[in-house]
Amino acid sequence: MALQDTLANLFSGFYLIIYKQVKTGDYVKLDAGHEGYVIDISWRNTTIKEISNNLVIVPNSKLSTAIFTNYHLPAKEITLTMDVGVSYDSDLEEVEKVTVEVAKEVMQEIAPELKESEPYIRFHTFNDFSIDFTLYMRVSEYFDQRIGKHLFVKKLHNRY
Predict the structure, then answer these.
(1) If DSSP codes are grouped into helix, strand and coil, which group holds residue 154?
(2) Whether residue 153 sits in one domain with residue 94
(3) Same domain, 102 and 155
(4) Torsional sign, CA 91, 125, 140, 147
(5) How far apart are CA 11 and CA 23, in angstroms?
(6) What confidence tens digit (pLDDT) does each residue in 78-122 have?
(7) Residue 77: per-residue pLDDT
(8) Which among 33, 72, 86, 109 would be 20 to 30 A from 99, CA to CA?
(9) Which domain holds residue 12?
């Protein structure tokens, strides 16, 4: 009875490793809200390093039963989406052209290896004061969304 938790963690750790649900270096988000990079998977627990540099220690038995998203599976690359609105006075063809050019610049800066993935936009809503669209562009991994959004907003504002 005394070894029950230890054995549960041990077998859960084997299960996680064998079925490759998570590995060191993956960016994961747990249903409890914690998210970060997996830095260690031991026989007893898994250590996740949050962006704030805090460590979250999760017993393997808890991780194997948790609902979590692994942002590095099946591939690290993900699609960044940004909602944007432009004035009704805007030339939508020009908006599309400029927005895609800016997205390509951002991709070249943060994810040059993904140059074959073309960014695109889709107009979708006549809002009260704007025509809204969504930009879709690929980034190298989950965390790159933050710098991608930051650069995109600055560069698009400058170009508009």
Answers:
(1) helix
(2) yes
(3) yes
(4) positive
(5) 16
(6) 999 999 999 999 999 999 999 999 999 999 999 989 878 999 999
(7) 92
(8) 72
(9) 4-70
